[in-house]
Amino acid sequence: MKVTPLSGFPEFLPAQRVVEREVIASLAHTFELHGFAGIETRIVEPLDRLAKGGEIDKEIYVLRRLQAEGESAAADADKQLGLHFDLTVPFARYVLEHAGHLEFPFRRYQIQPAWRGERPQEGRYRQFTQADVDIVGRDVLPFHHDVEVMRVMVDALEALPIPPVSFQFNNRKLIQGFYRGIGVPDVTAAIRTIDKLDKLPEEAVAEMLVSDAGATPEQAARCLELATIRVPDTSFVAKVRALGVTDDLLDEGLAELAAVVEGCSSVDHQSVTVEANLRIARGLDYYTGTVVEIFMAGYERLKSVGGGGRYDALATDGRATYPGVGVSFGVSRALVPLVADGVLSGSRSVPSAVLVSVADEASRPEADDIAAVLRARGIPCEVAPSAAKFGKQIRHADRRGIPYVWFATTDADGVTTHEVKDIRSGNQVPADPDSWKPPAEDLRPTIRVSTGSTNEMEQDQ
Amino acid sequence: MKVTPLSGFPEFLPAQRVVEREVIASLAHTFELHGFAGIETRIVEPLDRLAKGGEIDKEIYVLRRLQAEGESAAADADKQLGLHFDLTVPFARYVLEHAGHLEFPFRRYQIQPAWRGERPQEGRYRQFTQADVDIVGRDVLPFHHDVEVMRVMVDALEALPIPPVSFQFNNRKLIQGFYRGIGVPDVTAAIRTIDKLDKLPEEAVAEMLVSDAGATPEQAARCLELATIRVPDTSFVAKVRALGVTDDLLDEGLAELAAVVEGCSSVDHQSVTVEANLRIARGLDYYTGTVVEIFMAGYERLKSVGGGGRYDALATDGRATYPGVGVSFGVSRALVPLVADGVLSGSRSVPSAVLVSVADEASRPEADDIAAVLRARGIPCEVAPSAAKFGKQIRHADRRGIPYVWFATTDADGVTTHEVKDIRSGNQVPADPDSWKPPAEDLRPTIRVSTGSTNEMEQDQ
């Protein structure tokens, strides 16, 4: 049977998978340092929880058993299941289902795939892995958690060997308060319209503000004026004040945005920049305060590689409302292009730091014993699959990127001599299986960063 | 909207998830020490690759987009996708698709969920996680890899804090050679019949050997006689020889099985036992040599918690054949019952080792700074969500299982005193954020093993 790749379902080769694995391990490590619990949810949700009549509905994958005997699709509709298309819907359901067993505020991270049946293109896949961090309260969730969760993601992305990323923050209260303050009739429609600024020219957006949100041309011009404010610090406060609009919600939004920008800038970061960008709106209606989009240098064509914000009602079950704040990083969206472009690669295709050579099949048990001794000391290794000529065994290691080959030779008197060769330098030295170890940087596969791309990054970071 | 659990889709609470996470990390660690590359495959395969006309077909979940405009189900059949029901089918496809980019023998592990629409029951779920290790060659794969891959799984399960497991080995060549040697007409049917010994009484199996495999009653009796042999060492060789059957394939099977039992017994294991059990056949037709089933003490009702074997043609693409040998451990099948029974639990519901208390909201930045210092030294911690009374903050830690609470008090002269309280003992001592660290066993959540069950296990292992 001929095997062809499936469009929209990227798969990594073993050395490429090292990149994904190390990135996921690093993200999880940072999230755990901040005390976030790692959970996983089942991949399916009832269809009525997924499909909300929005744009995304037609991209939902629905499940059906191949031979669902006697069950017509229609009769089965009430228990139809679909694959989740993000990690927010399943998380909200998890919170409601398990609320009685959770402690609030509940801080969780979740790194899992999601599925959307959309047209595949660079950065957009039908199966894609996301990394989400959220904090959810019961009935109340103090604002300082907005600052906290955004700082966690800043720390997490700072620790990754990816191109520099920019966190662009805004606040829904700020926009809403400003629009209300200048008297725009339909504030919600205006926010949805201003969100199109990355796709449409300013004039077109201005016209839509008039036609769709009922704004006057003067109001539309002031909305656009607000949206042009973009600064790397809290100087946006003075710039907004200079526009002369007074509104309580605007004041609240300005104070919150300033706290988030300040809180995220206060840490010492090399490859993360933080900005207040007042055109960021995020189309989704459920955001109620802080909003953020994350962009990656050199990959602006992917649009954002992450985003999130504050939602005052992530979920509600009649007894309680669960406000939350969170942010998501698109692991596949960022890594698949970076790996395809050769910016990131794995240092080898196997975990083995050492290949234990085999002189002849009769001595395989001795080679196995040497490997066991090395493994007991935490050194990943494998034993040569055949007692081929040593040159061939070295090539076996070389093709997999294994840096060291171990040789044990026993002389006529039964005395065994151990030597280990660094096949990169050709250096071969005596070694004791009970004490030898490779340099720390050779112990495990690592991510190599290439400078061959347009990004300015350290080599082999 | 009312939320009810979905039968067959088990989900872990945060502290339970610690068990799964640590088990998966331990498995991956062992597999990597042995040089196996960790890969993941997409969760979907073309339906014609999944559905082979067997028992499992009706359990396959097929995907369909919710609003696949203009695509009738029939017209779309040739590109229909289903969820994989094991990790072997996708692995075989991965090998064929990427053969030109892989180095053989290719040694990989894969820890991912799979899906089957079967009736949910204990140990059987609609979504379940498996951990597979396989070695695949191109055209040839020496027998010693059978021993190798089984030793890897023995090592991996030995490292887990689960009840003792038993590896029960047999060899298809041994059974086939024996059946051929005594003249059973339909050897394949006989193997499939003898595999039913765990469900049917011996008399019924004997009758079926006559009716389905064309055996005489005498041949059926000798097949059953072979199947009763079960020993923890290589003494099965003499017992089979004593049955007086001569056949080349039988000899080969005896030698291979002896090598596997010896190879897996030679390592020093506490909680893994190894047996030759000549009634193990494994129904699947593709096994051609070594076969194994893994059972867990006290949980025999789950049937096996793992299994695998040798297949001389995992995949073939016209140019080459890919023989393989592998073994799978049912992570969900073993862990969901162990967690439900309280045998295994997580030591806490969050990664945090320390809760940094907050005296008043004005001092939150100082608490954040203390947390940052601890995190920079690898200590997971969180800051109290509110400046409540210290008693309430301590209860916040206690409910999550966080062992330490940090107190910083600044006197009128601006001098800050740091103290840390072990809330289990009540012990409170002065501490320096730049040097204090918790004992290693408190640093991360761990798996607790309860002796409350029928299993003899160490507590808090």
Short recap of the structure:
2 copies of one chain form a homodimer. Chain A has 461 residues and is of the alpha+beta class. Chain A has helices at residues 14-33, 47-50, 88-98, 144-158, 172-182, 187-194, 202-213, 217-227, 236-241, 248-265, 331-340, 364-376, 390-400, 440-443; strands at residues 37-38, 44-46, 61-65, 81-83, 106-115, 127-136, 165-171, 230-231, 272-277, 290-296, 306-316, 321-330, 344-346, 354-356, 381-383, 404-410, 416-422, 428-430, 447-449.
Number of helices of chain A: 14
Strand content of chain A: 15-25%
Note the gap between the termini of chain A: 42 Å
Number of strands of chain A: 19
Summing up helix and strand content along with how strands pair, one would put the structural category of chain A as: alpha+beta
Rg from Cα of chain A: 27 Å
* CATH class category of the largest domain in chain A: Alpha Beta
Oligomer: homodimer
- Parts with pLDDT < 50 across at least 5 consecutive residues of chain A: 453-461
Q: Which whole number gives the mean pLDDT of chain A?
A: 92
Largest sheet of chain A: 9 strands, mixed
Shape of chain A: elongated
Largest protein interface?
A: A-B, 88 and 89 residues
CATH topology term of the largest domain in chain A: BirA Bifunctional Protein, domain 2
